[in-house]
Amino acid sequence: MRYVEMVLRPDREGFHPAEQAIVDDPDLQRVAIHHLNQLDDGTIVFLYEARGALDRARELMDGHEDVLEYSVSREGSKLHAYIHFEPNDLVDALFRAMQEYSIVVDTPVECLADGGIRITGMGDQETITEALAVVPDSVDVELEAMREYHPDDRQLFSMLTDRQQEILRTAAELGYYDVPRDATYEDIAAELDLAPVTVGEHLRKIESRVLTEILPG
């Protein structure tokens, strides 16, 4: 079985009007999709993670008739949303491609600031190639990696606490691990409303945990 990591970027209209409204809103930031499923009636269910203004998120969901049902709650700096919605043609085509070619999506799906998503799919190489060929033209596909699937690759991340996962993801997004480094503890702390010393402590614990797991012996 092969493991493919790719970025999907829609055109200016986005994947779906309700989601694009979140992308365009300065008071909200998408983080990840933790669960996605197409029901027997063709409608879609997402479990979404975001950051920002709770009332604004609810207001946007109320403003889209394609959103059939939703629930948004806050946990610390995170917003968690259950969203049941009618897919447009683009979303429906993407789900049909996954089902037709038996592509398994490994969650969470990372949401990018430019409106794209970073998605990991699993299947055999031939069906992955065929599925990519039927992605609608309005979506740009950037293939980042394709290799043999090893479950342990994702288990390392799952070993971290929710707080550690959030800090690590934010550090990577802001460029803390870029060369040269583009972010500091202070930048990460400001993004997450934490003290810089707290960010530093968490990152050291994360690095210690990961290195301990990957070093032989």
TrEMBL record:
Domain (HTH bat-type): residue spans on this chain: 160-211
Matches recorded under Pfam families: HTH_10, HVO_0513_N
Gene3D superfamilies on file: Winged helix-like DNA-binding domain superfamily/Winged helix DNA-binding domain
InterPro entries xref list: HTH_bacterioopsin (IPR007050), HVO_0513_N (IPR056493), WH-like_DNA-bd_sf (IPR036388)
Residue stretches making up the HVO-0513-like N-terminal domain: 16-149
UniProt keyword ATP-binding, yes or no: no
Keyword annotations of the record: Transcription, Transcription regulation
Keyword match ATP-binding: no
Name by which UniProt lists this protein: Predicted DNA binding protein, contains HTH domain
Organism: Halorientalis regularis
